Sequence to fold (123 residues):
Amino acid sequence: MRLKKHYDPESLETGPVVSFIEIQHQSDTWKPSRKVVDLGISEGWLSIVEGFIVLKTAEDLPDVRYNVLAPPGYYCCHDGQKLSGEKQAKAYVAENFGDKPHPVEPAGYVRHNFYLTEVATDG
Fold:
């Protein structure tokens, strides 16, 4: 996904303020990092509302919404279970899959620092 910030021209002298985002290339899925999401929220061009990441576009266009499928955190590689932290991840994998190593991730769990999202199609 490629985004371009558009600034309010009146704010350029005192400190630029983002007025909207132009989506130059959009994909069906998007994995924005926590850093991108935090920056977007602080600059006002992104919000998280009721399980969606919402990108503020130009006034004459509808905002773009992405459904959050999985927030950042720890996940079991075997069954996709969301886990509360590294200790719980280790214990969960050992208890449920200890004798079955995962073919890609030897620990059996991963930590994602991004939001797994897909474009919302329900308007």
About this structure: The helical segments are 34-43, 86-97. Strands lie at 2-7, 18-25, 29-30, 46-49, 52-55, 64-70, 73-76, 82-83, 109-112, 116-119.
